[in-house]
Fold this sequence. Notes:
alpha/beta
Amino acid sequence: MITDAFDKSxxxxxxxxxxxxxxxxxxxxxxxxxxVIFEYMLKTYTHEEAGVIRCCNGVTTVYIFEIDxxxxxxxxxxxxxxxxGSDVIDVNWLxxxxxFIMFGSAGSLDSNVTNGKFVIPVAxxxxxxxxxxxxAPSDYIEIKNSKIVKAIFDELNLPSxxxxxxxxxxxxxxxxxxxxxxxxxxCLAVEMELAGVQAVCDFYGWDLYDFLVTGDVLDQAVxxxxxxxxxxxxxxxxxxxxxxxxxx
Length: 248
């Protein structure tokens, strides 16, 4: 069973085998999922290449940005828990970053609660595979820095709500039964990366600071996707991530 995947035996290989010796260029990193936001970062901020994550179907370039007097790593992450979690490991090796700020869009499971507010996850349901290789099995994984993120949002006077969310890699298997089950457990939104990335950070002792914006709405009679583009690409999330970086 996938839930039995976690063990502490010696690994067969690691990032050193692909990238050589680890670099130590900065301690903070912004994880970006929006091509629009990432292109804006490249056009706006001075940057230099730190390295590339190489795959047989392409490369992901990792940069070190100069933002408000800070050196911050940044890259356009792959989508989904397995790939996003693996990216974090590679980026740590290429840059030395151990404090990761992640933001993205999510589907609302309770639009009455999430409408007009950022969602700050306190725990996420593990309906994916990667996390079970890095953390012992459980239904939920705690998002350990959620109180810090909430305090920063309050300091910035930004509307937000805290609660559980649901991580799944199976975007087209978000069913009515699952929606009701997660809502009954207090989940406010569904997304695709958080459980895996948090598990990786827990395993290696790194810090993750995560917040979400709901776009599509799942708790209505007719599925509503109209808000997804704004949730994905609005630049406000980047500015908030930068403010978080200043405070951690």
